[in-house]
Amino acid sequence: MINPEIKVKGLSKSFGSVEAVKGVSFEVEKGDIFGFLGPNGAGKTTTINMLTGLARPDGGSIELGGLDCTSDRKPVQHLIGVVPDESSLYPELTGIENLCFCGALYGMRKKERIARAKELLDTVGLADAAKRRFGGYSKGMGRRLTIAAGVIHKPSVLFLDEPTTGIDVVSARTIRSMIRSLNENGTTVFLTTHYLEEAERLCDRVAFIRSGRIVLTDTMEGLLKKDRRGEAILLRFDGEGDALAESILRSAFPAVSFEPSGRGAVTARSETYLSVGAMVRTLEDGGFEVLEARRIASTLEDVFLQVAEMEEER
C-alpha cells in the first residue's frame, strides 16, 4: 500500500514472562473495514490497546494517518474513535449527557455536540432513551451508546473491540448496519472479533492472530480461495438407503471423498474440479431422485480452522 491509514511494524508486548504480542506487522488501507480475528487470548485486545494508546508497546512502530504515534498519541487523538469491549461511560449520566460529555472532551462547542448527540441517538435507535440514565440501559443499548460516543467527533479511523459480543440479535444487527454506514461515509474501521460470520459479512481484509503472531493476512476473497479442501458439492436425494447412494457414488468417483450430511444427503469433496451433472446422473441411474445439487462455498470458518490446524502441526 502506498499510503495506508494504519501501518504497524514489529509490534510487541509482554506482561512479565508472558509474551502477548510477538512482532505483529500489518497495514490497513484507507476506507477499508479490517477484521482482526483470533481466539480468546490470541492478542487481539492487547494489540488494539497499543494502537489506541491504552498500552505502550515494548517494541515496534505505529503510524495512523501517516503520523508516527508509537510513543505519543496526542498528534492523532482527533483522528481516531475508540469503542472498547467494556464501556467507560458514566452510569449516573443520561444517554445524551454521556454523548455531550464525550463531545466536550474533543473540544466540540455546546451547540455542535448537542446536535451531534441527538443525531447519533436517533441513528442507533436510542432517541426515546436519551434522558434515561446509562446505568439503566440493557447491555445491547449500552453497546450502541458506546459506539455513538466513539464517533461523536466524526473520526477518520474507528477502532472496535468485539462490538457485538454478548448482546441481543436486534442490537447486533443495528451495530453492523451502523458500521457499514460509517464505512460508506469514509470511516476506516479496525474491528476485532471472534465471530467469523460477522467478519465475513463486514470486512474487506482480514488478519488472523494466534498466540500473539499474525499467521495470515489477505482480502476476504483471497482468504476464501485458500480452502485446501478444494471443491465441495452437496447432494440431496429422495429414496431409500443413504449407504447405497454413497456406495454408488464411491464406485463411480473413486478419487472423491463422500461424507454423510444428514438423512438423504451427502457431501462430495475433492482437490480437483467436480462435475455436478455427472454426480446427479449417477444417482439418478441408481434409482434416486435428486432434490438438490449445489456447490458449497468456502467460509471464513473453514479457512480459520485450517490455519489453526497448520499452526498446531508446526
Automatic annotation (TrEMBL):
<protein>
    <submittedName>
        <fullName>ABC transporter related protein</fullName>
    </submittedName>
</protein>
<keyword id="KW-0472">Membrane</keyword>
<dbReference type="GO" id="GO:0005886">
    <property type="term" value="C:plasma membrane"/>
</dbReference>
<comment type="similarity">
    <text>Belongs to the ABC transporter superfamily.</text>
</comment>
<dbReference type="InterPro" id="IPR050763">
    <property type="entry name" value="ABC_transporter_ATP-binding"/>
</dbReference>
<dbReference type="GO" id="GO:0005524">
    <property type="term" value="F:ATP binding"/>
</dbReference>
<keyword id="KW-0547">Nucleotide-binding</keyword>
<dbReference type="InterPro" id="IPR027417">
    <property type="entry name" value="P-loop_NTPase"/>
</dbReference>
<dbReference type="InterPro" id="IPR003593">
    <property type="entry name" value="AAA+_ATPase"/>
</dbReference>
<keyword id="KW-0813">Transport</keyword>
<dbReference type="InterPro" id="IPR003439">
    <property type="entry name" value="ABC_transporter-like_ATP-bd"/>
</dbReference>
<feature type="domain" description="ABC transporter">
    <location>
        <begin position="6"/>
        <end position="236"/>
    </location>
</feature>
<dbReference type="Pfam" id="PF00005">
    <property type="entry name" value="ABC_tran"/>
</dbReference>
<keyword id="KW-0067">ATP-binding</keyword>
<keyword id="KW-1278">Translocase</keyword>
<dbReference type="GO" id="GO:0016887">
    <property type="term" value="F:ATP hydrolysis activity"/>
</dbReference>
<keyword id="KW-1003">Cell membrane</keyword>
